[in-house]
Design brief:
With about 190 residues, this protein is of the alpha+beta class. The protein has one domain: Cyclic phosphodiesterase (Cyclic Phosphodiesterase, Chain: A, Alpha-Beta Complex). Helix content is about 30%, strand content about 35%. The strands form three sheets. A four-stranded antiparallel sheet has the order 3-1-9-10, with helices on one face. A hairpin with a 7-residue loop joins strand 5 and strand 6. The chain is globular.
Length: about 190
C-alpha cells in the first residue's frame, strides 16, 4: 500500500448507551473462553460499505457521493433488537447485533450508495444489505456455550439515530484496528 493509499469504509456511529450495552454482552460472552475475537466496543459501528484500499482520487469521489446523499436523505432511526450470527448459529463465523425489521430508508440509502460508488469503479456488493453491528468473529468453532448464551440472551432494544454518515479510515495494528473519521456528512433534519 502506497503512502497515498488508505483503507476505508462508510458507517453510522452508535450511541454510548448502545456501546455500553454491547460491551456487557461481550464481557459476558468472554467468560466461556471460546475461540472468539471480540470487537473492542469503541470499534463497533453500523457499516454501510467497506471500501478497502483507496487512493486520493477515490477519496474525493467517495466524499462527493456522500455529499450528494446528504441532500437526498433525511435523518432516520434503526432499531437494534436481537443477536445473531453469519451465516447462522449452527455455523457461526461472525456474531452480531441487528434488527428484526427491514428499514426502507436505510435500504434505499445503501442501494443508492452502491450505485453511485459503482460509477467510480467500486465493486458492488452482491448480497442483500443486512444491517448489523459486529461484536465478535469466531476463530475456531465450535463455540457451543457462547451460542447457547447468545440465543437465550434477553436483548433489550436500542435505537441508532442515523444523522451523520462517517467516512472512516481504518489502520490495522497488532492490537486491533484503529478507526479515524476522515469526514462527517450530516443528513437533512
Amino acid at each position: 500500500m502506497s503512502r497515498d493509499t488508505i483503507r476505508a469504509f462508510i458507517c453510522f456511529e452508535i450511541s454510548d448507551a448502545l456501546r455500553q450495552y454491547l460491551e456487557t454482552i461481550i464481557e459476558d460472552g468472554r467468560r466461556f473462553r471460546e475461540a472468539i475475537s471480540w470487537t473492542r466496543p469503541g470499534n463497533i459501528h453500523l457499516t454501510l460499505k467497506f471500501l478497502g484500499n483507496i487512493d486520493a482520487q477515490q477519496r474525493e469521489a467517495v466524499s462527493g457521493v456522500l455529499q450528494k446523499l446528504t441532500g437526498a436523505f433525511r435523518a432516520f432511526a434503526v432499531s437494534i433488537d436481537r443477536l445473531g450470527a453469519f451465516p447462522n448459529f449452527r455455523r457461526p463465523r461472525v456474531i452480531w447485533a441487528g434488527s428484526h425489521e427491514e428499514n426502507p430508508t436505510l435500504q434505499q440509502l445503501v442501494a443508492q450508495l452502491e450505485n453511485e460508488l459503482a460509477a467510480f469503479g467500486f465493486e458492488t456488493e452482491n448480497r442483500k444489505f443486512t444491517p448489523h453491528l459486529t461484536i465478535g468473529r469466531v476463530k475456531r468453532p465450535p463455540i457451543r456455550q457462547t451460542v447457547d448464551f447468545l440465543q437465550r440472551f434477553p436483548f433489550e432494544p436500542h435505537t441508532i439515530e442515523c444523522r451523520e454518515i462517517i467516512f472512516m479510515k481504518s489502520e490495522l495494528n497488532p492490537g486491533g484496528a484503529i478507526y479515524t473519521p476522515l469526514a462527517t456528512f450530516s443528513l437533512q433534519s
